[in-house]
Structure formats: structure tokens, C-alpha cells
């Protein structure tokens, strides 16, 4: 078991990085968009929906006004609550073990997700990962007050600091350009994972790109020094 890391803390995106919730998201989006007279996405088009806040996605992807998007978010989240926040969700292979091993190695961790925090908490409880995190952070229920990746990352760092964690060398693990851009606003390096829902170009600006869990493990738990990664 590794006993150290080049990082003082690890921030984790959730959708597409820890959890594959695509089956449930596609099912609920289909119901919601048909309800509002919009064409639902195909599975291939889910890449446009998974990652950004839903409030933003309803506007960008189907042309809703902010008022319509807010109504659509409420409807969609109602379906989610009825469905069960963890229904159909799966951990990406090996990620649960890596998170638990990082916690066992004494590395403080937090989620930094654009999903509503109540859903992130439910998912971490469902997969028995709650105790591995110092802070579980997600978007506010309205997905407007606290929703941008930059704001969520800032809140995750704030809660870690409040818990006495050294946040001088954080790293974010994510799978979308929103993760890269949001982290850059706080000077946080990003390890970009390829198993999520992204286009190839979205990793631009990340400090490292990994194809599998072994590569990620090497960078988080006993990989190259942080200085080398930051200099890439």
C-alpha cells in the first residue's frame, strides 16, 4: 500500500469520472424533453449533456430560455428523485478501490461535481465511499446558486481547508473541458481521464491524460513528483 502522494489533496469529478450514470440520465432526459416538446438525445449525443449543469444544458442544447430551463430542471430532478438517485448507476471499474486506497494512504479527498449535492451524497453512500471523503461537494439544488465547475471547486477547497486539510498541492481528476477550465481558474492541475464522456480535444490544458485506472493510480499514489507533472 502506498503511503504517500505527490498531492496534498485530491478533488474528484463524479459523472464520467467515478460514476457511469448514463443509462438513467438518458432515460430521464427522454421523458423530460418529450414532456416539453423537444427531441430527446441519442446515446451518442449524451456527451453534450453529461458534465455541464443541466440548467445550462437545457439552454445550450435545445434552446430553452432561462425560465424554461429552470422549469425543465425541476421536472427532470423530480424524475430523478422518483427513480432513485443511484438507480442504474455504476462505478467505473477500479475507481472505488483507488478512492479507498487513497483514503487509506492518508490523502484527503473531496468530490467537486456539477450534480446537485444531495445526489452526490446519495451516490457516495450507495457505493460505500462516503467515509473515504473529507468533503462531498456538489451543486446547489437550483443548480444556479452554486453550479459552475469553478465555483464547485472553490467550495470543495474551502471545505477541505475548514477541515484542516493542506490544499497547497491539490489535483482534480475529471473527464470534461469544464473540469479543465474550472480548475485552471484556481491554479489546480487536472488529470484527465479518457473513460468518461468527452471529445478528444477536451483534454487540452490538462496536466496529464490517462487511459486506464492503473495510469491514474500511478499518478495519484506513487507516481512522478508533482513538479514534473505540473511542468508538462
Structural description of this entry:
The protein has nine helices and seven strands; from the N terminus they run E-E-H-H-H-E-H-E-H-H-E-H-E-E-H-H. Helix 2 (54-62) packs across helix 3. It is globular and about 55 Å long. A five-stranded parallel sheet has the order 4-1-5-6-7, with helices on both faces. The chain has helices spanning 22-35, 54-62, 66-83, 95-104, 117-126, 149-162, 177-184, 213-220, 226-230; strands spanning 9-12, 19-20, 90-91, 109-111, 170-174, 190-193, 208-210. Strand 5, helix 7 (177-184) and strand 6 form a beta-alpha-beta unit. 41% of the residues lie in helices and 10% in strands. It has 232 residues and is of the alpha/beta class.
Tell me the helix content.
40-55%
Strands side by side in the biggest sheet: 4-1-5-6-7
Ends apart, CA distance between termini: 27 Å
The major β-sheet equals: 5 strands, parallel
**How many alpha or pi helices?**
9
Backbone CA Rg: 17 Å
Mean pLDDT rating? 90
Low-pLDDT stretches: 223-232
Give the topology string: H per helix, E per strand.
Answer: EEHHHEHEHHEHEEHH
The total of beta strands comes to 7
Percentage of β-strand residues: 5-15%
Amino acid at each position: 500500500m502506498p503511503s504517500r502522494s505527490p498531492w496534498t489533496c485530491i478533488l474528484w469529478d463524479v459523472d464520467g469520472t467515478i460514476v457511469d450514470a448514463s443509462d438513467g440520465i438518458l432515460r430521464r432526459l427522454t421523458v423530460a424533453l418529450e414532456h416539453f416538446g423537444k427531441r430527446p438525445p441519442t446515446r451518442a449525443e449524451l456527451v453534450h449533456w453529461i458534465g455541464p449543469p443541466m440548467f445550462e444544458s437545457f439552454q445550450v442544447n435545445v434552446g430553452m430560455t432561462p425560465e424554461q430551463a429552470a422549469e425543465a430542471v425541476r421536472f427532470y430532478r423530480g424524475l430523478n428523485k422518483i427513480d432513485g438517485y443511484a438507480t442504474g448507476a455504476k462505478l467505473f471499474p477500479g475507481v472505488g478501490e483507488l478512492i479507498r486506497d487513497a483514503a487509506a494512504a492518508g490523502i484527503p479527498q473531496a468530490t467537486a461535481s456539477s450534480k446537485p449535492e444531495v445526489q452526490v451524497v446519495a451516490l457516495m453512500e450507495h457505493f460505500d465511499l462516503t467515509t473515504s471523503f473529507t468533503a462531498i461537494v456538489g451543486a446547489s439544488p437550483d443548480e444556479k446558486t452554486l453550479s459552475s465547475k469553478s465555483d464547485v471547486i472553490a467550495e470543495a477547497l474551502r471545505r477541505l481547508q475548514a477541515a484542516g486539510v493542506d490544499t497547497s498541492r491539490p489535483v482534480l481528476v475529471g473527464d470534461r473541458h469544464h473540469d479543465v477550465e474550472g480548475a485552471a481558474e484556481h491554479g489546480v492541475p487536472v488529470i484527465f481521464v479518457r473513460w468518461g464522456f468527452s471529445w478528444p480535444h477536451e483534454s487540452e490544458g490538462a496536466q496529464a491524460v490517462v487511459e486506464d485506472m492503473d495510469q491514474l493510480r500511478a499518478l495519484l499514489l506513487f507516481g512522478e513528483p508533482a513538479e514534473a507533472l505540473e511542468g508538462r
